[in-house]
Amino acid sequence: MISKPSQIAKLQNKVAIVTGGASGLGEETARRFAEHGARAVVIADIQEEKGQQVAESIGLHCCTFIKCDVADEEQVKSLVDSTVERHGQLDIMFSNAGIVSKCMQDILTFDLSAYEKLFSVNVRGMAACVKHAGRVMVEGGVKGSIICTASVMANYGTGAAIDYVMSKHAVQGLIRCASKGLGEHGIRVNCVAPGPVATPMICGRLQMSAEDTERCFEAEFAIKKSGFLKARHVADAVLFLASDDSVFVTGHSLAVDAGYIPTN
């Protein structure tokens, strides 16, 4: 249980939403936000039981869970509006919810229905979160921070899982455009671009344990002998983008990838 903020609280009295916060990068970041003094952290996810457990384990009086499917814009709007209604404002939106390809899509067997399902979460959902978070920040006069989860794969092409790679390219385009539209209001919009991390979603997709998944990715990192890339490393980058430490950073994709070099 997180009972008090760290000595140097970077998010003192801030109100944050974390989508996809029931596990993986979202869960780790929600915990980091609480450790750094956020007065309210709202965890949003479709995984209701896990989300409730994470909120309870963080232990803040104002750490709550709201079930939300980001592919449904009305649910995103309700999530944002209910957060402002309860806590008075929204300072940070970490739009992290995303899914991976269920099949290794290549161009010759491209399944457009599967592509549309993935884009409804990874692109439409991200746009909805940026739109509605930006809306309430402008209305409330809040100089907030919006962070999306992209991927190191937004910098590469690949022969498989191309719908996922396309979606992460779209996230980078989204934050670059939104940073222009919201910058005049003092609102920053960035994304974090992680390299491969052994999150529950990735391990489930590969049908491998976390340890085996990390070993699988190890050869693709330029940085060696420093351990494996973990969710906590990505959470630290998100914390930087959410805090005043990055007050003049916007429209930026921050890679946390240990010098990822795709080998396959």
Principal-axis shape? globular
Please identify which CATH superfamily of the largest domain we are dealing with: NAD(P)-binding Rossmann-like Domain
Radius of gyration: 17 Å
Can you tell me the residue ranges where pLDDT is under 50 for at least 5 consecutive residues? none
Structural class computed from helices and strand pairing: alpha/beta
Please indicate the percent range of residues in DSSP E strands (runs of 2 or more).
5-15%
What value does the average pLDDT take? 88
- Proper CATH architecture of the largest domain: 3-Layer(aba) Sandwich
Number of helices: 8
User: In the residues, how many domains can be counted?
Assistant: 2
Which CATH first-tier class of the largest domain would you pick? Answer: Alpha Beta
H/E series: EHEHEHEHEHEHHHE
> How far is the first residue's CA from the last residue's CA?
40 Å
Helix content: 40-55%
Total beta strands = 7
Biggest sheet architecture: 7 strands, parallel
CATH overall fold name of the largest domain: Rossmann fold
**Regarding quaternary structure, how should these chains be classified?**
single chain
The order of strands across the largest sheet is: 3-2-1-4-5-6-7
Family: Belongs to the short-chain dehydrogenases/reductases (SDR) family.
Organism: Coffea arabica
Pfam families: adh_short_C2
Keywords: NAD
